[in-house]
Write a structure and sequence with these properties.
Layout: E1 3-10, H1 14-27, E2 32-38, E3 41-47, H2 52-58, E4 62-73, H3 77-83, E5 93-101, H4 108-117, E6 121-124, H5 129-134, E7 139-147, E8 150-159, H6 162-171, H7 183-192, E9 200-203, H8 210-217, E10 221-226, H9 229-246, E11 252-256, E12 271-276, H10 290-314, E13 315-329, E14 335-337, H11 340-347, E15 349-351, E16 366-368, E17 376-384
Parallel strand pairs: 5-6, 5-7, 9-10, 9-12, 10-11, 12-13
Antiparallel strand pairs: 1-3, 1-4, 2-3, 4-8, 7-8, 13-14, 13-17, 15-17, 16-17
Helix pairs in contact: 1-7, 3-4, 7-8, 8-9, 10-11
């Protein structure tokens, strides 16, 4: 079997995106090996029958996939560039971008010499991946990653198009930015659970259904629960729109209910996984006082303990939860967080880390914060013991 090496370039949170990538591969029984992970990229060995279009469209944190053209040390760079086939098209005029990670930008001179030698008029420009993804022109994109003494030279073959997320976000019947997860984070959270499509997913704090709609598009049967009736109505409208607009054939349902009473609505061992961004406390326009932060965390601690107790009943054995847990930074700069160790001991869950079997482990939980959001977040992957 022929194996190719690809470079995966990640977005704003490389650690989270790397974990998502490995979870996605494991859930689909992809034969892969991690060559390296550093800064904002990973190099992965994959079989040639992998559908790269499907991968780039399904992931939330990968912005570019590039095929490795060659790998060498600095002494061999000139020799390798002299024989490298950087461009396989027929035009003698091209536009290209170059991103360097850990390598000096002066490496561009090797690209210029290669194009000149092959009588190609090449213009270098800084081009965003989504521009290339939407352009009908031939725009080339290269990535050079330096890891220790080695240089990996890669040509991008697939690009994430954020316009598809934005169009889906603003076109659906209901949006509520102050309480909803972003489409990007929702998709990452779903993939983190590492469960095959067609499985049953529950979001017990579903809001207006952003996580539900992304799971539906990824091929899962989804169920949403929320305490607020208006939100469940909006979620149903959004999911109905997704079903009709994208012709999905997965099943969905939404109901008003309490996340601390799940066993009253569903049988034991019913769901394969839970993905959710739960109640995170009051919306904050400014940093709270220590007293306010402590009260919020104490209230959430009680809520989460009850929720996890119920989740352990409705989840199947080995069922997973990918979840956002808040961490609040007060005016004093002191941070307040949920005692997750206590909750997991009491409710029968343990941490799950898909990177443990790779050569490059990333510790969980992973810190995540949007610039506009006052509440810091920790992202966990948990498994029912």
């Amino acid at each position: 079997m022929v194996v190719l090496e690809y470079l995966f370039l990640f977005g704003r949170n490389p650690k989270l995106s790397y974990i998502e990538l490995l979870s996605y591969f494991l859930s689909r029984n992809v034969n892969f090996a991690v060559v390296c992970f550093c800064e904002k990229a990973a190099i992965i060995k994959l079989q040639t029958d992998i559908d790269l279009d499907e991968i780039i469209n399904n992931l939330g944190g990968t912005i570019k996939i590039a095929e490795i053209l060659f790998c060498c040390n600095e002494a061999s760079l000139e020799k390798n560039f002299n024989v490298a086939c950087l461009y396989t098209g027929t035009s003698n005029k091209i536009v290209y971008s170059l991103e360097t990670i850990g390598a000096s930008s002066s490496i561009i001179s090797y690209f210029q010499e290669n194009f000149k030698k092959n009588e190609i008029k090449a213009v270098h420009k800084e081009i965003a991946p989504h521009t290339i993804a939407k352009s009908n022109k031939e725009l080339l994109s290269f990535v050079v990653l330096k890891v220790g003494p080695l240089f990996y030279v890669a040509r991008a073959v697939k690009f994430f198009d954020p316009h598809t997320f934005r169009e889906r976000d603003i076109s659906r019947p209901n949006i509520q930015p102050e309480i909803m997860s972003s489409i990007r984070l929702s998709r990452i959270l779903i993939n983190l659970a590492g469960v095959k499509p067609k499985a049953r997913m529950l979001d017990p704090f579903c809001g207006i259904g952003t996580i539900l709609q992304e799971a539906l598009l990824l091929g899962y049967d989804v169920t949403g629960v929320d305490l607020n009736r208006k939100r469940t109505q909006k979620a149903s409208e959004n999911l109905n729109w997704v079903e009709k607009t994208y012709c999905v054939d997965s099943k969905w349902s939404v109901r008003q209910g309490d996340a601390t009473k799940l066993s009253q609505y569903f049988p034991d061992d019913y769901f394969d996984f839970i993905t959710t961004e739960p109640e995170l406390g009051p919306l904050l326009k400014k940093a709270p006082t220590d007293r306010e932060a402590e009260k919020t965390i104490n209230d959430l601690q009680k809520l989460y303990k009850k929720f996890f107790t119920e989740a352990s009943r409705v989840l199947k054995a080995k069922g997973r939860i990918s979840i956002v847990i808040p961490r609040i930074r007060a005016k004093s700069t002191k941070t307040y967080r949920i005692d997750m160790d206590y909750i997991l001991r009491e409710t029968g869950f343990k941490s799950y880390n898909p990177t443990l079997k790779s050569n490059f482990e990333v510790k969980l939980p992973v810190f995540y914060k949007e610039q506009w959001h006052k509440i810091e977040r920790l992202i966990y992957i948990l498994e029912k013991a």
